[in-house]
Amino acid sequence: MKFFFFFLIALSAACAELPAQINPYARMTDPRALARLDGDDSQPLRYSTRFGYPPYRDPIDSNYIFAQDSGSGIITHIWMTGTAPDSTTNFKLYIDDSLIFNNTLQSFFQIAHGVLRPPFDSLYPGASVCDVQIPYTKNFKITYIGQGWNVYYAFAWRPVLQVGAVQSFQLSEPYSVEYQQANAESVYESLPSPWAKDKPPLHFSDTLLMSPGLTEVIKELNGPAMIEKLKFSFPKYDFDVLDSVWLNIYWDGSPYPAVHVPLADFFCSSNGGLNVNSYEIRTDASGLTCYFPMPFRLSAKIVLVNNSNDTLQSIFSFDYSKENIDKNSYGYFHAYFHEEDPTRYHIYYDALHEKGKGKYVGLYLYCPHNNLGVVLEGAPLFTIDSNVQNYIHYTGGEDYYNSGWWFMGKLFSAPFAGHLNFFQSFYRFHHFDAIDFKQSIDLLYQTGKEIDVAAYYRSVAYYYKQQTSFWVSSDTIKEGERWTVSGTGYKANSPIIATFDSSQTIFTTASNANGEFNAVLIVPNSNEYGARKLSINSEMKPEPIYILASPAIRAIADSLPVTLRYRDSLLVTGAGFDPGEQVDIYLDSILISDTAVTVGNDYRFFATVRMPDIAEWKYHLRAVGDHHHEAMANDLITITRIIPFEFEDIVPWAANDSGWLHSQNLSSYWAGHWSHQEVALLESTGPKHGVTFKIYTPVSDTFNVLLLYADGPKYGIYSIYIDGKYFGDVNGYKYDSWDDNVLTSDTLKLGTIYFPKDTHTVMFYCIGKDTGAKEYRLGADLLLLTPTTKMALPKGVFTTAKNDSVKSLIDSPDVLNSYISVFPNPVDKGKITLGINFLSGIIDGKLDIILTDILGRTLRSEIGIPIGVNGGQVQFDVHGLPTGNYVGEFLIHSGSTVQSLSRLVQIRE
Question: Which residues make up the CATH 2.60.120.260 domain(s) of the chain?
Fold first, then answer.
């Protein structure tokens, strides 16, 4: 692969005289630099990214200001694309109050200007990139203007806090002679020669033969050392097999792998091709090669797990060098694999969530089976250190991969980005513009423009992270539980002191002769609950340890809030109960577990419960143990009686008398939204043929019935029959210039229908097609049954009978939410106000407000509060209450009516 452009290497003798001077190209000249976390240029990256022009204009010439900063730093990345004729564009770059470039946009990217030369992968399909590292000491500013508004851009820069660490960039001499121009191709092809050292690296190679299901430690190394190159070679490259072969890498004796990724994904080759030519990852007929630097101080363990059904034959090799590794200076290499099949409608895809100090260096994304560009309308969203100033929202998928306009239909593999398989396989490596984080990094990926693509997503996030010397058996504990804390790398036979929040000593021990320790302890009593910071010998674990004041439970669900219906199952997990304790699961006072679940020796339980046939409401999920332990989940469980029937889900039980019936994923179509982005598609042969679906209603009830379906140029006219009764026709034809398009679905009201508890039939019978229709297709999407009846709330749920004359005045969750006043909720251990607002029917009387714990013990109360036209309320001081869930009870005395309601109250740190 040839690269015709150049990059700059700062090798100035003048710079060498400044001990703190930053070499912007160190990550190219010294590959170790990519793993370093202690440089002056390791501040979180700042980004300016947008579609269209920003609201700010330069008073000098009315150009739009695309990016600017004050202080010192380095511009690390300039990406732009647009449709304006180049002759109408004006691009300006100011460095330290000096205008160093003023010309058209493309002349900036394609023409050399003194030392400002394009890097070796400047031109991508549909967009242009400049990765020349441009330092500034006082400020920089980039402005632009051109015809039309169809412009996209992403500019990145890294602030440098140390005064004098960078030198002002200029085009004119003498500054230009301080840079040496080097042919990028020669550096690229000479890997791993940039590893400057006195002697060649140590080399290890071995032949592997792994049977199916085998886990093998292929090499263990003692440190300190730096792995420079990993390579796997195979007699044949069957990526369906390599998809089931996992690479695990463990650092410094940790029981948890820092790399846990299928080989195919780790080497960006899930698409099954040998065509990756990035700077860090190479794949060709000679093998799969990784050049990411991997430092470690104590040990490295490299493991392969063959989960395939085939015997794996391979040659494994790596190069490494023995050298000093300072754990405070270097990050340890990590690779995080995640997949979802399919992604969830309106739920972001989680590509990476990590806490601690580190550096994000790249992403590989694979969307198999996708064949349309709509998947690229989704954008990656970065949040660095939970700081809005470091929030990065790219303008689209292909934009993040340095290209534009759906890659102009082209495949490519460049040093820092690639499009390997049409709309399916992509990578982006941040070499010069690595994203440093001090506390945390969160990377969410939109699946489609409106998070509306239901498709198979799988990804690998590559990053470095500062390694801690210890690990814990669990990050959620309760006093009295057994807990294990272990570590390695300490001085032999030296003291080990463990503290919470650097103040409360929780245990002391000593390391053994190998510098290791393993502490098994009973969690001590604590006056403080919630998130605590664990330190061992003053080294702090970046992820918090959560200490429970009392047992806790949560629902395990795809997304929150949880909405369920009759007969739905829910997985519940709890922590902090006694081993052997028998636990029942409730919705408020309604028992929903068939049998009690037994708590394990780890103080935890898992239970699967099924929803009863109860009124629509928001219920508290509770767990009650026979050792007097009780816990309540933070999130309410919403019960709905609406019954949806997704036709694509019941295709296997349907009967069609002609044509082909199958499910069709529509998430790649632009025209609209469908329920679950999928329909049951009948490709019919014509009139007098049809399809019959079977549905089961678990209760007898009367429902308002809606039908959603798809339409387009190939859709016909069908009559609808439910249990043999005719309910109207649906004409699916809609004109579009693309014959295969599927357009926004319509909604058809079928009326009010009584369904007894039984199996029912829904038949679509073809009666013809519109004169313009190309075929007789049917796209059945969703049959929605909404009950017309109301169910009374069970006793013990918000409204509780105190005597025979009680009458409920609350019949809707929406009324309840606006009626009860609880704020702030949650409360940060301060003061909380509880009360009721005005509601027709309650204009006098008295109000009792009681704050209890989840065991029902009264903690705060106020009796006999007068109720007026504005309701009634009271303020409680909750400073002394530990973090956890509580219940606010409201007892209303109005005339002869007594009403009791309750609401969850959360107190946190």
Answer: 643-787
